[in-house]
Each structure stands twice: as C-alpha cells, then as structure tokens.
Amino acid sequence: xxxxxxxxxxxxxxxxxxxxxxxxxxxxxxxxxxxxxxxxxxxxxxxxxxxxxxxxxxxxxxxxxxxxxxxxxxxxxxxxxxxxxxxxxxxxxxxxxxxxxxxxxxxxxxxxxxxxxxxxxxxxxxxxxxxxxxxxxxxxxxxxxxxxxxxxxxxxxxxxxxxxxxxxxxxxxxxxxxxxxxxxxxxxxxxxxxxxxxxxxxxxxxxxxxxxxxxxxxxxxxxxxxxxxxxxxxxxxxxxxxxxxxxxxxxxxxxxxxxxxxxxxxxxxxxxxxxxxxxxxxxxxxxxxxxxxxxxxxxxxxxxxxxxxxxxxxxxxxxxxxxxxxxxxxxxxxxxxxx
Amino acid sequence: xxxxxxxxxxxxxxxxxxxxxxxxxxxxxxxxxxxxxxxxxxxxxxxxxxxxxxxxxxxxxxxxxxx
Lengths: 339, 67
Prior knowledge:
Chain A is mainly beta. Chain A is built from one helix and 33 strands. In chain A, a hairpin with a 2-residue loop joins β1 and β2. Chain A is globular, with a radius of gyration of 19 Å. Chain B is mainly α. Chain B contains three helices and one strand; from the N terminus they run αβαα. Chain B has helices spanning 17-26, 34-51, 60-63; one strand at residues 29-30. Chains A and B meet through β7, β8 and β14 of A and α1, β1, α2 and α3 of B.
C-alpha cells in the first residue's frame, strides 16, 4: 500500500479515484420489491420490482440500488434476515464496472443484512453469477434456504476463462453477508459463498460468513495472474464444532500471483465437516507464488493446543513462498511449520 | 401553441458517491455509514483539488482504509 502526500491511499496498486463504477453519464437504477407495479427503474419512486430487471436495463459503470424487502422471522434466516429476493441473476461481460449496492431504511441497524438474495429453485444456479470485470458489491446478503436442496452453484460467483465473454475479474465485495453456502460441486470441490473460476483478482473486505462450507474459494485465470485480498472478514459457524465448514479461504489450482489475507477473525474451532477435503481455516495450494498471511485470529481453545501455520500447518496451510506475519491462536502467536 | 419539452438521455442521481448517498437519504434510505460518508466527501474534495474530477465513484472498500 502506498500513500499520496495528501494521505489519499492506494490499495494494492489500485488508486482511489475514478474509473470504477459510476462515470460521467452513468445511470443509477433502483429496485424495490414493495412497488405496486414495476417502474422504469430510474428513480426510487419508479423502481423496478426485481433485480433481474435492473441488471437487464443497466449498462457498464451504472449502479443499482436495491431496497430491502420486509423483515421476516423465518427459521432459516438466522439471525433474522429480511425476506429474500429469490432470483438467480447473471451479469454479462458488457456490464463491466456495474455496482450493486444494498440500501437500508434509515435507522435500521445492520445494513448488510437488509437486502437478501437467494437463488431460485434451481439449486445448481448461483445466486449471482458475474461475467463482467470490475464490478462492485456492497451491503448485500446471500443466503441458502436451510432445508432446501443443496446449493451446488455457489452464492456470488465470478466466472472467467473466455476473453471478452467471461471475465469476472477484479471485483470488490464489501460489507456483505453470506449464509449457509453448502455447495458440493464446482472448482475446488464446492460451490463457495464467494467463488471464482479462472478470474484475475478479487477483493473481499468487511464481510461476514456464517455456516458456509466454503467461504472464499479462488481460482485465478492463469499461473502468472491473479491477486486476492481478503481483509477484515469474520468467518463463523452455526455450531461450536464447525461441522458444516470445510475451509474458509481456499486458493487452489492455478493459484494467485499474490495473496493478502489480513485481519480476519475465524470465529469457530477447526473445521470438522464430514467428508471435508481441506479442514483448515486457510488453505493455499503450492501454486500461489507470493503472499502474506498476517494478523489473523482464530477462536477459542482448540483442545488445549496451539494451532500452526505453514506447509503442514494445522490451521493455515500455505507454501514456503507465502510469508506469515503475526497470527494468533488461543491468544498466542501461531508457530510456523516447514515441511 | 404548447411547448413540449422532451428530456433525453440518462438520469443522474448525483455526480459523486457522496451526492448520491445524500440523495438516497432524502428518499429515506442509507447506503453507507456516516463515517464512510464523511471520508467520501473528504476524498472527493481532494480528488477535485488534484485533478478537477467532479464525477467519481469511491468504493466503500477503499473508504474504509482511510484513517
């Protein structure tokens, strides 16, 4: 991170400033399911009723504001999510730089939980699949209905692999909530809450993952491309044994050129998912070229033992070319294991 | 004879992120914390001083990094 003399910061080489999301002439669109009839989407009082309509109308670098649906106390909506927009949507390549921002009614605490997006009945489809680069997602909640069919398609999925067609690269996910992503297929072995397939770059900050089999699963677009930034997130379980979690952050085949995993709190004991393939908080395969894992905390007393990080770590697994800063286990510095 | 005014082109809910956020609040909504809004206004002012930009989108992921 560098800093301008006036303290305007650069983040990972990406300058703070124009170029993402709105540009001069960009359009703001509005979605509100409470509308009596769908409008033209161009003002809060003329909002579309569905996210699908807004995405269809939007062009590159537009923004879509989504109002929350009514609060519900449905049992699978712990800790009390609003009624979901039950839509599976896709963002095509042509809509590069689209920003989708959840908005809350003023005075309501918990902005990220207000606008909830759930996949449609087809559980093989992601809640939202992104083929466009440079998109921004803020204040959104993604959930899988507990008791429903296994959600194999992931929740917020970024797809790459085909130039000028599938390039879900360099997205930013901020202040979002992911609930019960329990997919079992897809790159890396599951449909993660946030999942990339052959994309270049992803930033996930200030998000909350609860009961997700895979939190973030990242596959970059090539052996020499891709950076992943995971900062200030919370990964939690719905039960103390973390029996529905396999891995919170997983970077795998054709890994990333650079990875920064910093300041996250893993608020559960070591994952114990039956049939899990990783069973770690963080698992970076040997393809990752450079990285830093630092200032992360893991929860509670792990059977009286201090967990470790490194090539054969019990909590964090990463290759030798990834550096460990100060990570904490049971309040102590985490030791590094070297194979 | 009546004069009919036809407005073409896109709507604009505000040229900057902070302007859009303030307009959202006028409509009874909120899209970012007061703290991030304050940071947003500050950065927009700096950007305008630096490069004259009056049309900017600032991601909250960036705003949260400004201390």
